[in-house]
Amino acid sequence: MSIKSEKTKAIILKTASAEFSAKGFDGARMDEIADKSKVNKATIYYHIGGKEELYEAVISDVLGNYAERLSLNVKKSRTFKSKIYSYIQTFAEIIKEHPHIAPMMLREVAGEGNRFTDDAMSQMGEIIKIIREILKTAKSEGYSLPEKNPVIFHALTISSLLFFYSTIPVRKRASAAGVVADSTELNISLEEFADSFARILYSSFHKEHS
């Protein structure tokens, strides 16, 4: 694929993610996605396919990006503590770079993941393998594991970060309405939340006494 074609595909995916995020799969229209991408529908069909394929491509693109970056970042981290922080911070970075993926993922969960493709499932499997390696490092460094199942470990992270990011507008309204006396409790960034979550998660692991 040429550089121009790659750029066109990237624009289409970015536009489609915004439309699917705001309107869901059923509400999003290919005409609007084409117009906002400044291409015709034939171009979308040529580069990606129909509406189903476009939706699947958006999810696979983000999950693939996440799995690849997570693998690189975790491998660069030497200790269990640094691996946990890297894992959570990488996920937070992906969410911030792809702001529309959070509501899309929450919709998928609500819809029992019926639109997750085999490729998306495969990417999720790669992520679970990485988490299993993180837990293996913890064990090798003498930590007791509060939970050995990597799926539960990942579910805690996904649910916490996705929910936090998706509810930022709600917290802004609550802050403006004076719901709590100290508005700084509500006005925290995704990065701050990720750091706090990593610290809490890490603190649940304890060194085993010999």
From TrEMBL:
Keywords: DNA-binding. It comes from the Bacteria. Residues 6-66 form the HTH tetR-type domain. Residues 29-48 bind DNA. GO terms for molecular function: DNA binding. This is Regulatory protein TetR.
